[in-house]
Design brief:
With 78 residues, the protein is mainly alpha-helical. The chain is built from four helices and two strands.
Length: 78
């Protein structure tokens, strides 16, 4: 399960804040019923489903689809 907040973290991490926001608003995705990610979320589509559809539409390598939005591990520092 991906929460909305995890979804938005994942989008920012993968695409950057500006491009990510633009993609959510402007990119129409066939797998989401020819809706944008924003429209699909507003219509109640699960964030996980929207994330996978967005990744597929943007040709994100599948190994980066999972684990997105999870807290990053911090490096050990002295």
């Amino acid at each position: 399960c991906v929460t909305r907040s995890e979804f938005f973290i994942a989008v920012g991490d993968e695409f950057g804040a500006v491009q990510g926001r633009s993609l959510l608003r402007d990119l129409v995705i066939q797998k989401l019923g020819n809706r944008s990610a924003d429209q699909a979320l507003a219509d109640g589509v699960a964030p996980r489903e929207v994330w996978f559809a967005l990744c597929g539409a943007m040709d994100v390598p599948e190994h980066r689809w999972h684990g997105a939005g999870l807290p990053r591990k911090t490096a050990d520092t002295p």
